[in-house]
Amino acid sequence: MQKILWISVGAIVGANLRYFVAQQVAKWIPSGFPWGTLAINITGSFILGFFLVWTTERVIADPRWRLMIAVGFCGGYTTFSSYAFETFVLAEQRQWLPAIWNVAGSNLLSLAGVVLGAVLARSL
User: What burial letters (b/e) apply to 40-50, b meaning 16+ CB within 10 Å?
Assistant: First the structure.
């Protein structure tokens, strides 16, 4: 039961930050393209890459922190299901180029986020 509490705390923070970031990005970049989801997926990937490498290779972390950050926070913050649905909608509307950009951007830039997070963690 204690593990569920740690995951839940992280998920609450992650989900609320996801909402906030999506709203802010929509204000900064008004567009039909899902820039907020893309930004969230990239930053969430960076956070996960950094945190898992840092707590595996650089510092000793209580396993509850891994549950709270990696499972709870990143699970509540990142938006893969939103990304998939938004891409589906773009394709359904025959907006092929934005759909392709969303797939390429989300996958390649999120992978880059993990790599950069891991590099940063290893440099500390």
Answer: bbbbbbbbbbb
C-alpha 53/C-alpha 58 separation (Å) is: 7
67's CB contacts (< 8 A; 6+ apart) are 3, 6, 7, 10
Q: What is the value of pTM for the model shown? A: 0.84
Give the domain range for residue 87.
Answer: 2-123
Structure tokens at 83: 């990304």
Q: What is the pLDDT of residues 87-114, one digit of tens each?
A: 999 999 999 999 999 999 999 999 999 9
- Tokens standing for residue 122: 């290893």
Count: domains in the chain: 1
Nearest CA-CA partner of 2 in 63, 75, 70: 63
What residue type is assigned to position 28 of the chain?
A: W
Rounded CA-CA distance 109/14 in Å is 20
